[in-house]
Design goal:
The complex is a heterodimer of chains A (about 350) and B (about 400). By secondary structure, chain A is an alpha/beta fold. Chain A has 11 helices and 8 strands. Chain A is globular, with a radius of gyration of 20 Å. Chain B has about 400 residues and is α/β, with parallel strands linked by helices. In chain B, helix 11 crosses helix 14. Chain B has 2 domains: about 240 residues, Thiamin diphosphate (ThDP)-binding fold, Pyr/PP domains (Rossmann fold), CATH 3.40.50; about 130 residues, Rossmann fold, CATH 3.40.50.920. The chains are: A alpha/beta (about 350), B alpha/beta (about 400). At the A-B interface, strand 1, strand 2, helix 3 and helix 5 of A face strand 3, helix 3, helix 5 and strand 9 of B. Strand 2 of chain A pairs parallel with strand 9 of chain B, so a sheet runs across the interface.
Chain lengths: ~350, ~400
């Protein structure tokens, strides 16, 4: 790496006196990118994200992992949204990587343009990452994203999914789960919160394009996220990574609960963590301790109307059905032999 | 180079290829298709190399791919028309705001509803204030020359340039065209050196969020940069003439060209017709007839429409007390877009400005109709705004049948 590289500065660890950062008690080979003092600082400190922001955490881990995987030869296209707004209030920028924000809905196409320019210049050693929130991915950005997949353009697209339009004040997106309260799906009336639709499962839609790599991850397992980014960067063509990033503001949850909620989303089966390639699911992260969805829902104010006075166990039951269907569909829980069932934590 | 008989789209494709674009992306829409088909074939055959030709899923993506490519330091080109231009509108503004020197051909076509694939200027006019330079071609030779100028101007000023040519009337018409050699173009158009680019060796942030404390200054600077085109276009046209041995936009065998505005028989003219695009040929024929009849009338063509060449127009219509703007678009409920610009440019002069809306949705503009209406201008009987060959019988029948106005 050239010495002028601005992203390469000695990293300060703010967790004083602890080895908690990035598994530094592990063998060096097993440690995370974040535990490396020589790592890049793609999204540096001082930005304006909320306390407990899952997206800021996810983006930092994902991009630093991508920087390590590409030896610092990376360009990033970013959609409009929280991540763009909190990182680049002119004249400041938290990005220490070449970074371009164009519009809300065109990030995949902009990334295609970057990749085309790099190819024509014979600089295919420089890799392209595009990133957007769920609105910029599943809704307004989907046309361009589908086009990018269909052409198999050499871009890793990362969606940081916090399940609503948080930047504009928590309005419903195509990724908002059923019954969740948002500013445009208020918790009033006989069907409070977001409607039960068919959903819009972007990871499966990506898989249906038969691109070479699709994965989901959460900020509860950052090592897994890093591993998937590194794997994605080892592959050419269109790759898609969908990261669940809880939002304390929009989910109406304590900022200290971000990681816990991401873990519960996985452990309930509501957010299946899996990998796929060329149209097939190739691997799943098994649920270790299956939790009922209620454990997950109760921690979030956006589901408050389902509990307490006027509780709606019927709606909680429908959400549990969704989780159970995911578990069955993706095989998220191992079949437990009959003699071990007494110790297994099965519902 | 010899003069060739070429379809307008083919001629433009050849001109674009001579400019060595590195990323071309396109989404098909009539009447732009022949241009991108021809460029696509040149890339596919290896004749135009190195170049990436990207088939995208919408015009919005076409402009967005151009944005990404241009920001990464590649010379980027695309083409569109009509609904396509409007569909990419958000990205058109964005390209200008980011100062990316993208060149785009607009094969001018009406905007629906009702859907109509034929020519008028509603599309380019709708985006006249998107921050792009807009150049209008009168002939296919002008279209070729303006593309060469466009890349040079765009990259010098770091602004995007739209070359507007009338759909079908130019894009699908075969005309004699003189194409320059590659050596000439390479001399005129140096390698693209971006003002800033996405480069891991020197990472920068492009497209930051600018608040009220600086946004006005950013916009003002963009305004100044765009206005620079009013100086650079004539200078580059002069350089063009030296290099290619003929004036910018001059048809083969003709010595008449022009960069900001073109004048035709304006000496002593008390009435001047202002127009842009291919209709200028018909206007000139009508004016020839009226001159023969002894009327002091002339023509001024606008080659550069954005930034608006107010000063050049001012000089070109000196002495006239009546200006008639022939427009292929108008603001429903308002008046002609070009008329507004002309009226503001001439506001300190005792000049009556009239609008003739003509040629909407491909309606032929005949020399005879134009001559008849211009004759009423000369006698002082032309209303402030009129519609050429409007079938009032059909309008009256419709308003009676459906709902009285």
């Amino acid at each position: 790496m050239p010495e002028t590289h601005q992203a390469r500065h000695p990293v300060k660890f703010y967790q004083v006196g602890s080895f908690a950062v990035g598994n530094r008690l592990l063998d060096e080979a097993d440690r995370t990118v974040q535990s490396d003092r020589e790592r890049t600082n793609s999204l540096t400190s001082g930005h304006r994200a909320c306390q407990g922001c899952g997206e800021a955490l996810g983006a930092r881990y994902a991009l630093d992992a991508a920087m390590r995987a590409t030896d610092g030869r990376m360009v990033v296209a970013n959609a409009t949204g929280c991540l763009e707004v909190f990182s680049t209030p002119y004249p400041e920028s938290s990005w220490r990587i070449p970074w371009l924000h164009s519009l809300f809905g065109n990030t995949a196409a902009v990334a295609t343009g970057i990749a085309a320019a790099l190819k024509v210049k014979g600089r295919e050693d420089i890799r392209v990452v595009a990133q957007a929130g769920d609105g910029g991915t599943v809704d307004i950005g989907f046309g361009c994203l589908s086009g990018m997949f269909e052409r198999n353009d050499d871009v890793l697209f990362v969606c940081y999914d916090n399940e609503a339009y948080m930047n504009t004040g928590v309005q419903r997106s195509g990724a908002t789960p059923p019954a969740a309260r948002t500013a445009t799906t208020e918790a009033v009336g006989p069907e409070p919160g977001n409607r039960f639709g068919q959903g819009k499962n972007l990871p499966l839609l990506a898989l249906a394009h038969e691109i070479p790599y699709v994965a989901t991850a959460t900020v509860a397992d950052l090592h897994d996220l890093e591993r998937k980014v590194e794997k994605a960067m080892s592959i050419r063509g269109s790759r898609y990574l969908h990261v669940l990033v809880p939002c304390p503001l929009g989910w109406v949850a304590a900022s200290s609960e971000t990681i816990h909620l991401a873990r519960l989303a996985r452990e309930t089966g509501l957010f299946p963590v899996f990998e796929g390639a060329h149209g097939e699911v190739t691997d799943v992260v098994k649920i270790r301790h299956k939790e009922p969805v209620e454990e997950y829902l109760r921690l979030q104010g956006r589901y408050k109307h389902l509990f307490g006075s006027g509780a709606r166990p019927d709606i909680v039951g429908r959400i549990q059905e969704i989780a159970d269907r995911n578990i069955a569909r993706f095989g998220l829980v191992d079949e437990v032999p009959p003699d071990e069932q007494s110790v297994g934590k099965q519902p | 180079m010899p003069v060739q008989q070429l379809e307008g789209s083919r001629a433009v494709a050849e001109a674009v290829a001579l400019c060595r674009p590195e990323v071309v992306c396109a989404y098909p829409i009539s009447p732009q298709t022949h241009i991108i088909e021809a460029v696509g074939a040149m890339v596919k055959s290896g004749r135009l190399t190195p170049c990436e030709f990207v088939n995208v899923e919408s015009e919005f993506a076409a402009m967005s791919v151009s944005i990404g490519a241009s920001a990464t330091g590649a010379r980027a080109y695309t083409a569109t028309a009509s609904q396509g231009l409007l569909f990419m509108a958000e990205a058109v503004f964005n390209a200008a705001g980011l100062g990316l020197p993208i060149v785009m051909t607009v094969a001018n076509r009406a905007v629906g509803a009702p859907i109509n694939i034929w020519n008028d200027h509603s599309d380019s006019m709708a985006l006249r204030d998107a921050g792009w330079v807009q150049l209008f071609a009168e002939t296919n030779q002008a279209a070729v020359d303006l593309h060469l100028l466009a890349f040079r101007l765009a990259e010098e000023l770091s602004v995007p340039v739209m070359v507007c040519m009338d759909g079908f009337i130019l894009t699908h018409a075969f005309e004699p065209v003189e194409l320059p050699t590659q050596e000439q173009v390479d001399w005129f158009l140096p390698r693209y050196v971006p003002r800033q680019e996405l480069d891991p060796e020197a990472p920068i942030t492009i497209g930051a969020m600018v608040g009220p404390e600086a946004f006005e200054e950013v916009r003002y600077l963009a305004h100044l940069r765009l206005l620079r085109a009013l100086t650079r276009v004539p200078e580059l046209a002069s350089e063009f003439e030296t290099m290619f041995g003929r004036p910018l936009g001059a048809r083969p065998g003709s010595a008449v060209g022009g960069s900001l505005v073109t004048s035709y028989r304006t000496e002593g003219a008390t009435t001047v017709v202002v127009a842009l695009g291919s209709v200028l040929g018909t206007v000139k024929d009508a004016v020839d007839e009226l001159r023969t009849e002894g009327h002091p009338i002339g023509v001024v063509g606008l080659t550069t429409y954005r930034p608006f060449p107010a000063e050049a127009l001012h000089g070109a219509v000196e002495g006239a007390h009546r200006v008639v703007v022939v427009e292929k678009a108008f603001g429903t409920g308002g008046r002609g877009f070009v008329t507004d610009d002309v009226a503001i440019a001439l506001r300190d002069h005792d000049v009556a400005v009239h609008t003739i809306v003509a040629g909407l949705g491909g309606r032929p503009i005949s020399e005879e109709s134009l001559r008849r209406v211009l004759a009423t201008a000369i006698t002082g009987d032309l209303p402030a705004m009129s519609f050429l060959d409007l079938d009032m019988g059909a309008v009256t029948a419709e308003t009676r049948a459906v709902r009285p106005l």
